């Protein structure tokens, strides 16, 4: 009797699938794992990866040698669909400011004015602090 150790990526312990012969095809391995785990083939597919080399088995007719260890990941039948959203990768100040572009010119002027007032107040407090330290 030959066997292959498998574990789901979220589990800690390996389980065993037994078969006769020197190897098993990927399709047969998936079928045995789904039967043993009571998974329905119409709901999900299994992604099988070699535990030592981390190479994913893609061809359904590939032969997996006996006494191998594999990692199993359950995936949706149609595959994973990307969300299609674009996120800002550049986090520089200009990129962040451009992502919050104001709607109108009056709002833009208000934002610029508030930044100017903030910088004036900050520098005023710094000057007052220096003046206070030198006078005491």
Automatic annotation (TrEMBL):
<dbReference type="Pfam" id="PF08783">
    <property type="entry name" value="DWNN"/>
</dbReference>
<dbReference type="GO" id="GO:0006511">
    <property type="term" value="P:ubiquitin-dependent protein catabolic process"/>
</dbReference>
<dbReference type="InterPro" id="IPR014891">
    <property type="entry name" value="DWNN_domain"/>
</dbReference>
<dbReference type="GO" id="GO:0008270">
    <property type="term" value="F:zinc ion binding"/>
</dbReference>
<dbReference type="GO" id="GO:0016567">
    <property type="term" value="P:protein ubiquitination"/>
</dbReference>
<keyword id="KW-0862">Zinc</keyword>
<keyword id="KW-0479">Metal-binding</keyword>
<dbReference type="InterPro" id="IPR033489">
    <property type="entry name" value="RBBP6"/>
</dbReference>
<keyword id="KW-0539">Nucleus</keyword>
<dbReference type="GO" id="GO:0006397">
    <property type="term" value="P:mRNA processing"/>
</dbReference>
<dbReference type="GO" id="GO:0005634">
    <property type="term" value="C:nucleus"/>
</dbReference>
<keyword id="KW-0863">Zinc-finger</keyword>
<protein>
    <recommendedName>
        <fullName>DWNN domain-containing protein</fullName>
    </recommendedName>
</protein>
<dbReference type="GO" id="GO:0061630">
    <property type="term" value="F:ubiquitin protein ligase activity"/>
</dbReference>
<feature type="domain" description="DWNN">
    <location>
        <begin position="4"/>
        <end position="76"/>
    </location>
</feature>
